[in-house]
Amino acid sequence: MNFGTKHFKILVYAGDHPPPHCHVIRKGVETRVVIPTLSILSGPELSKKEERRVLKSLDAMCNEFDRLNPFQH
Amino acid sequence: MNNWDNLEYQKIKTAILDKGMLSVVFLNEDQVDLPLSTVLPIGAANIDESSITNSEFDISLKSSQGEIFIPWDKIRILTDTRFAQETVKKTEENSKLIGTRLKTLREKKNIKSLELAERAGVTPQTITRIEKGYTDVSFATLRKLLAAMGYNLKDLANHELSTLKTESVKSLQSFLKKLSSLGIDSSLANKIIPTGIKKRLTNDREDLPDLIQTEIATYFSRIFDWNLDDVWSNKELHIKDVPAQLAYFKTPARGSINQIKAYSHYAYYLANVVCKINTKASKFEYPGDIEECKNVFYKYYEKLTLVNLVNFTWDLGISVIPLNDQGVFHGASWNINNKHVIVLKQKTDSHARWIFDLLHELYHVFTHLENENTSVIETEELNPFGNNDTPEELEANSFASQFIFGNRSEEIAVAALQKAKYKIEYLKKSVKEISESEHINPDFIANYLAFRLQVSGQNWWGTAYSFQITDPSPFMITSDILKKRISIQTLNPIDRNLLSSAINN
After folding, report:
1. In a structure prediction context, what are the per-residue pLDDT tens digits for chain B, which is 505 residues long?
2. What is the DSSP string of B213-247?
């Protein structure tokens, strides 16, 4: 599920592996960001503006993660 | 850069599905083959193999549940051991990070873990396990815990909290440094840390195991009245003023006020422990004046020796605790719930010095500690000619001198000096003669003279020391009497360890 936009995707996948994370895809690069701590798993650091955008969707993403990955915890 | 930070490692070039086998080629030309079933979400069914497409970072397929997406990292985890290991490591780190941040948020609001458990409707063990990073926690539980403290999930994303984590105290070395800044020097810390634990400690920078940390924290939190959780946290600790605040507190000429406060706390804790188990009724009433005191003493004890004076003090219902650590604290007396305790702290083995100090403290007990929960802390070495010229100290010195010399300390000192023709080389002989004629032990006279000469800048301590009775050690005498007078075995293991460590050399 995409919590971002067409050009700034914030994706949460069903059946994804731990730790809980989202995939932030923009300008041809991807950063995997742990939720809710926003630690980086791989990829370039987020800019402050990008981080704010992820933070804005954090609550909804966490809800969706629990729904899509009910067996992860 | 790690391999997995490389875009070509992440990006998918082609993905083909044939009879349930998924074959993926990445941009770096890695080709991996794996059964599709291993990467499908639980419950996915009726996959249309022909619908497979891929973007740069994921593969998509149509199923009866709708479109399914498989991200690149899910494929890599199943086909690259190093990447899988790295992911496991990151998962563990994340659990710890969440635990640390949650704990930091809790401590910021001074909420105890038990209280949080109660508020959030979880067990205290759950809080402990989450905070230690031992368990993964669902967002639903996290939300509940955060809400119980007035936070939300976004508060866990605060980077400042992770900075605090890196500064938290985990190694023995950094713990000792933290204690030292509070006035608890390493020798005192060593006395407090139980022997069983000490054997397992190394002075390296390694993180100490949790159970050792908890055990050490238990001892320090009891003595200094700290919250158990705060001892190893990055939270600032303070030595509270309580035992020192009650004191006739003489400003120390040297040393650190923090050290005195810290040591006073330690001694006060031991005094409380001993006080609690000294339940025997006193044999004598407190004397009304010095003559009565001497009469009672000499009625039951033939000579003024350390053994006799310590026993006399216990007979009065006053507990006596010996300590022999280095440092700026030089003894104390307390009235704890209307029971008196004297702490003697001397580095010297001179019986005469210990006797003088005990008599000095006895006077404080008789005269200055009538009120409940009061104390006198000695911040300087006791000395009949010392700088402690507060009225209480002068009176206590006078009491000790009068008990030993009658009212004739100065008269006897002058007689010794006259007999020596005021020549220091004859003083040793004259002290012996005066001691015999006055029936006063030569060590008392020698000490008085050494202190008196010290005022005028002369050091006669070498000769004075030759008169001293030092065997058996006064510390051991006082300690042995304490062990006979109270039953240390009845104490709980922590207090027993603390007291044993303090009174056993």
Report:
1. 667 888 899 999 999 999 889 999 999 999 999 999 898 887 788 888 899 999 999 999 998 888 899 999 999 999 999 999 888 888 888 888 898 889 888 988 888 888 899 988 888 888 988 888 877 788 888 889 999 998 888 888 865 544 444 445 567 777 888 888 888 988 899 899 988 787 777 654 466 777 888 889 899 999 998 888 788 877 778 887 766 556 665 555 555 677 888 888 999 999 999 999 998 888 989 999 999 999 999 999 999 999 999 999 999 999 999 998 877 788 899 999 889 999 999 889 999 999 999 999 999 999 988 888 888 888 778 888 775 667 888 889 999 999 999 989 999 999 999 999 999 999 999 999 999 999 999 999 999 999 999 888 889 999 999 999 999 999 999 999 999 999 999 999 999 999 999 998 6
2. HHHHHHHHHHHHT--GGGTTSSS-----SHHHHTB
CATH of B3-79, one of 1.10.10.10, 3.40.47.10, 3.30.2020.30, 3.40.50.460: 3.30.2020.30
**Helix or strand holding residue B376 (H, E):** strand B374-377
Q: Which residues of A touch B58 (CB under 8 A)?
A: 11, 13
Q: Is B478 in contact with B344 (CB distance < 8 Å)?
A: yes
Task: Please judge whether A66 and B139 are an interchain contact, meaning their C-beta atoms are less than 8 angstroms apart.
Answer: yes
The residue ranges of every structural domain in chain B are: 3-79, 83-167, 172-230, 257-405, 409-466
CA angle B297, B298, B303 (to 5 degrees): 105
Q: How far apart are CA B440 and CA B329, in angstroms?
A: 30
Among all residues of chain B, which has the CA nearest to that of A13? B69
Whether residue B316 contacts residue B284, with contact meaning beta carbons closer than 8 Å, is answered with: yes
Cβ atoms of B478 and B484 closer than 8 Å: no
User: What is the DSSP track for B71-106?
Assistant: EHHHHHHHH-HHHHHHHHHHHHHHHHHHHHHHHHHH
Q: Which residue among A15, A39, A59 places its CB closest to the CB of B42? A: A15
For domain B83-167, give the CATH superfamily: lambda repressor-like DNA-binding domains (1.10.260.40)
Interface contact B7-A16, CB threshold 8 A: no
What's the rounded Cα separation, in Å, for the pair B243 and B268? Answer: 7
Other C-beta atoms lying within 10 Å of the C-beta of residue B230: 17
From chain B, pick out residues whose CB is under 8 angstroms from the CB of A17: 73-74, 77, 87
Which H or E run includes B52?
Answer: strand B48-54
Q: Would the CATH topology of B3-79 be identical to that of B83-167?
A: no
**Phi-psi category of residue A3: left, alpha or beta, with phi > 0 → left and psi -120 to 50 → alpha:** alpha
| CB < 8 Å from A in window 89-108 of B | 90-91, 93-95, 97-98, 101
